[in-house]
Amino acid sequence: MSTNKELFLKHLGQTSSSPLMLEIVKAEGVFMYGPSGEKYLDLISGVSVSNTGHRHPKVVQAVREQVDNYMHLMVYGELIQSPQVKYAEYITSFLPASLNSIYFVNSGSEAVEGSLKLAKRYTGRSKIVSFENAYHGSTHGALSVQGSELYRNAFRPLLPDTFMIRFNDADALSVIDDKTACVIIEPVQGEGGVIFPEEGFLQLIRQKCTSTNSLLIFDEIQTGFGRTGHMFAIDRFKVVPDILLLAKAMGGGMPLGAFVSSAEIMSSLTSKPTLGHITTFGGHPVCCAAGLASMKILIEEELIGSCAGKSKLFRDLLQHDLITGIRGEGLLLAVQLAHPDFVRYAVARAPEFGLILDYFLFCDDAFRIAPPLTINEEEVSLACLQICKLLDDARTNGMS
Ligand code: PLP
Predict the structure, then answer these.
(1) CATH fold of 57-300
(2) What is the pTM of this model?
(3) Mean pLDDT, all residues of the chain
(4) CA distance 154 to 361
(5) pLDDT value at position 54?
(6) Residue 96 pLDDT > 90
């Protein structure tokens, strides 16, 4: 009989030549477990998804209760489904007043697609500005605004009229003009290796968009729901976009995304043509119930406020001569090593040290630390101890 490993390689579409290939049979809190009792401390949260940990009892309970009532009923936007309504109300209570209308979708990429269409529809323009090293997803529209020529070139032709400029380059903002439909930006670049905007950069973009009547889209798919020590990064930067994108942690471990805007802007999807964006499963009631429970946990367990202390503990305890720097805030950290070979080695070997680590797409000399926000200080200490042992091993064996 074939093993799961053989079946995985035979029947699942593969996009990586070196998948981690760990079999996981259970996940709880900050840990994942293998079939023979192997225990891994999850320092990635499924890439900033499991912000309230795996299978938080309140999330599991919300899922069970919703499944007992109903699952899928109808394509998005026709029937009144209380999990969607309640979650939309709760999220908007954390957002600036202008961001009061939520369109629920299935994923981050779909949120990006919806937002680009909305911006084109609302402004009647087609030009889109995005940033080098940005990651907005893998569908065609999202790929068109992705900041990597390597990925874009492989799939041309893509969306026309897209312009890529450098992050943190104020002079480059002159490309934003009265033909621009929108500027799409991650307030903190995730896959670029946790790159923060320089003081005033987001404000400059806001001014430029306002003066040219272009829409500003903030992609908070990775930074949202407490990850950087704020519910949303817009709270930290005090810049209000015209459209906000959410996904990943939004569903508490279930697939859910959204684009959020003003009711006025959003209404341009309702006419000429009607049904400007259609989704069958977007805002699935079980996902919305899970997401609402998860977002409430962030508040009830004061997980956002405790991020800064845990972040500092990581920085204090991660002392190793291979580490050349640590970037980031809250529990979104990039640990920079002396050479990309050490990063490749450390991520691949991390499970042997009881850890799940990950790379960044566009930053080869750093690895990511983004654990569930529920991680406690003892677990942070354990993680750092194991990372230092892993780096000792990488120093001896890591250079290819
Ligand atoms: N935007 C950002 C900032 C992301 O980090 C990601 C995924 O990593 C996406 C968009 C795409 O989200 P999804 O994989 O759910 O389509």
Answers:
(1) Aspartate Aminotransferase; domain 2 (3.40.640)
(2) 0.98
(3) 97
(4) 16
(5) 98
(6) yes
